[in-house]
Structures are given as structure tokens and as C-alpha cells.
Amino acid sequence: MILVIALLGWLFGVGINWLADSLPFYRKPAVPRCPACTAPFSPIAWFAIPAVIARLWRCEYCSTRRQTRTLLVELLAIAGSIGIYFWSSSPGSFWLALLVSAVFLLIIVIDMEHKLILHVVTLPAAVVFVVLGYINSEMSLGRTLLGGAVGFGLFFPLYLLGGIFARNIAGGQGDADDEVALGFGDVTLATIIGLAVGFPGVIEALLRGILAAGLFSIAYLIYMKLRRRYSAFTPIPYGPFLILGAWWVYFWGAAGLEKILGM
């Protein structure tokens, strides 16, 4: 059974890589291509692990190496699917967790590489998460929708404030407004996190994500200061930290908040 789960996780990893390579450029799935010369990969090179085994890790036209990320994502998807299998108490919860985690991993990859959270990912994900919340015996449609509304309600004002701050800074910083403003993609991500974990879990998920982002930013600032390479308004992808908070609540719960709110 573990081998079947590993194979399933690998296929999800292949799909995540495929979408991460095409959606930022075409906004739709496309045949995997070399990022340097745009030549299509041979079919076996669509899959990172077989490509490594077959020694097809370079583009056959320009010899550019494939991104290490593709191999890491496939391996992480395999490990994650096995971990979810041991975590889940039923086939239903396994499939729910696997789908949610696959969407979140895709968002992380794209955000880290392109600093984008694409609506072509989050909008379909919102629909899927509403359906999953409806069929999930541990959730309800009401808690799912309320979680999404709270996620949007918490981050949309931050997005507006970030835009005001960016416009004020832009007067002396050129195009700094593109670097410091909280993107609307972060708002849609907060919304689908709320749909995934429901209410009140969305509050703890976002707070954990904000805390993780803050701690990382402080550590990064100290590191760059010590190396004397600090630059103000350096953009840092925010999505991965929010998703870490969402994963925490999804798999380990938000018992503290639920107890406080009597839920």
C-alpha cells in the first residue's frame, strides 16, 4: 500500500511541477519547456525522477540544466503523501488532505520563484475547497464559508493599507510600490486558507503565518546586515509563511481557539 501511496504522491508532484512551469507564463497548462530556449522537453524529461535516472537532466537543444526544484517537489510530494497516509484516519480524510496540500505546494513553488499568487490557481481552489468543506464530516459549509470570509476580511484592509504606504514611499523610491505593497494575491490566499481550515482555525493559521514571516524577516535582516548587503524594501514571498500556518492548523488543529470560542 505504501508503494501505491508513494506513486500517487509522485504523480501529484509531477502535476505540480507541470503547472508551476506553465501557469506563470501562459496562465494555462502547457507542454513542459526549457526555461532558457523554450524548446519542448522530451516526454521522459517531463518527469524529474525518471529524467535523472535516464540522464536527461539537460535540455537536448541548449544543454541548460533542469531546475533542481522539479526533483525536490516530486520527492517532497512522495514524502508528504506517505506522511498524510499515516496521519489520516480514513480514506476520505486522506484524499481531502492530499488535495489541499497539493494546491498549497503549487502556490508555494510559484510564489517563491515568481513572487506571484495567481488567480488562475486560487479561484478554482476556492471552489474546490468549498466543496471539500461541504463533504468533510469534521467541517460544515457554514464554518468553511465563514473561514473564507474572515480570511478575506482580515487581509483586504492590510492590502489597502499596504497600497497607501507604497504610494507614499514611491515618491522617493522609484518603483518601490511594486515591492512593498501586499499583493491582492495574498488576500485571495488568506481567503482560501480560511476555506480550507474553516472558522475559527483561519485566525490561528494566519497569525502563525504572520509570526513566521516576521521571525524570518528579522533573521534575514540581521544576516544581510552582518554581510553588509542589506537593501531596503527587498521583496520576500509572503505566501509560503501563510501556508505553513495553514498546514499547522489543518493537520494539528486550533484547539485553543475553538475552546475559547466554545466551538
Topology:
Blueprint: H1 2-26, H2 48-53, H3 68-87, H4 91-114, H5 119-135, H6 141-173, H7 177-180, H8 184-197, H9 201-226, H10 239-252, H11 255-260
Tell me how many strands there are. 0
Cα shape: globular
Oligomeric status of the shown chains?
Answer: single chain
Largest β sheet strand count, sense and barrel closure = none
Report how far the terminal alpha carbons are from each other.
Answer: 36 Å
**Overall mean pLDDT score?**
87
Domain module tally: 2
Architecture overview:
- The chain is globular and about 50 Å long.
- The protein is mainly alpha-helical and 263 residues long.
- It has 11 helices and no strands.
- It folds into 2 domains: 1-87, no CATH class; 118-263, no CATH class.
- The chain has helices spanning 2-26, 48-53, 68-87, 91-114, 119-135, 141-173, 177-180, 184-197, 201-226, 239-252, 255-260.
- The model has no long low-confidence stretch (mean pLDDT 87).
Care to give the gist of this entry?
With 263 residues, the chain is an all-alpha fold.
Characteristics:
single chain, 263 residues, mainly alpha, 2 domains, 11 helices, globular
